[in-house]
Amino acid sequence: MLGQYDVCTTDKPIETVAEPGWTIEKLEALDAFGTAGSYDRSKLAQLYGGVRPKVTHGWKKSADRFESFTLISPYPDASLTRLEAGTMTIRWIIPE
């Protein structure tokens, strides 16, 4: 196994979830979520409309793994019908 994704959400704002030094920027929704995954891209774009989510990227390395993080706020609910306040964390974990 090369690695695995882990996705979780919190009601905390992105500014309190991001690690110090991570730059938060506003991106178009499709740029924030990228091309990986099997989500409905047109539905996601419609959901966000003119709203540009706050996004940050970062990584951590420990003795037993490498973790890459993408934080997005606001984030869509699972059905892509509404935006939720708070922050979604998408983590890619690669064991060493």
The topology string of helices and strands comes to: EHEHHEEEEE
- Compute the average pLDDT: 93
**Structural class label:** alpha+beta
Report the helical percentage: 10-25%
The total strand number stands at 7
Number of domains: 1
The unreliable regions are none
- The span between the termini is 11 Å
How many individual helices? Answer: 3
Sheet of most strands: 5 strands, antiparallel
Could you characterize the architecture of this molecule?
- The protein has three helices and seven strands.
- It has a five-stranded antiparallel sheet, with no helix packed on it.
- The radius of gyration is 14 Å and the shape is globular.
- With 96 residues, it is α+β, with helices and mostly antiparallel strands.
Write the layout of secondary structure elements.
Blueprint: E1 4-10, H1 14-17, E2 25-26, H2 29-33, H3 41-48, E3 54-61, E4 65-73, E5 75-76, E6 83-84, E7 87-95
Antiparallel strand pairs: 1-7, 2-3, 3-4, 4-7, 5-6
Short key terms for the protein model shown above:
alpha+beta; two-stranded antiparallel ribbon
In brief:
The protein is α+β, with helices and mostly antiparallel strands.
